[in-house]
Xyloside xylosyltransferase 1 (Zophobas morio), 354 residues
Amino acid sequence: MEFPEGKDYQQEAFRYPLNSNINAWRPPRDTKLCLPEKLLNKNSISFLPPKKVKDYHVWLIFTKVTERSPLRYKFHNLLENILNISTVSLKFHIIVDNSSKYLATNEISDVVSHSNKPIYYKFYDVEICAKAIEDIVEVLTPHFSSKPGTYYSDALFFISLGLYRIAPVSQTRAVLLDCDLYFKQDIRLLFEEFSRFKTTALYGLAPELTPVYKHVLQIYKSKHNSTFGEYYHLKNITSHMPHPKGFQGYNSGVVLINLSAIRNSKEYSVIIKNETVTSLTAKYKFRGHLGDQDFYTLLGFEYPHLIQTLHCGFNRQLCVWWRDHGYRDVFNFYFKCKHPTVILHGNCNTKIPK
């Protein structure tokens, strides 16, 4: 949900005592509050400020969904999972199209009825979002999209890079999540990573756990001695490069976004211009197909001060497609993750072990 400008809704925490009356409070304009049935039957409601004021904004994309679409079930399962494991009050911001909005509303209501926990959310029209970032999409699509499609479907691959324009200016930070995730631990741990950001960081991402960028960069690497696309080593494999231990690239299934820093970054506004992107892709002979993830990977190698690397447990990917398509000999070097798992990522439709 989005909160109107000028009012500090960070101060409102919601508790539902047994003697509460839900009608005692009216949500502000644009706020949608989906409450469990048992709360709707109580007599009163009270609002107490949290001990520590924080914003927990979660962004999701839910578009081109049909009644039997796998995304519908992934969306449902993710919401249910997050509500059940979270110890903090979250605000969901969901990008939808007209046909998917109805299905999203139904899924939210169903999750609330089963979890007995309220959800605060707001929908954002995908076409309006696409319009807000059309210049970014125009620059990036030729380099990082395998099959450029319709106007807004292209934009979906780059939402995270322009979210600072879409999110209300009152939002200073946010996380954008794929729907094929499962939280093994509290989502609060993910938000706490913001406190570990270096002062220059705009985004936070965990490593890509496959050799996809070793593959994408094979032309460049055939002519240059570079750690770009190499798996992470325990010790330095070079002494004169920015990434001496290797650089696998990033995966954008989980993205931490420092919105206020991006809005104030003159460097970022230059980097997303056509001249810079064209120069970068030409330098590394880079032709990607994974949208924003490709750009983050280039950004992380060329401008490492702008990306905060999260440990692999914050995005423990499960896809093994590249193991079976030419990289079996090195796959496990990329796929390993020795950190405790916070989030499982069932990418490429991989079943998530619960």
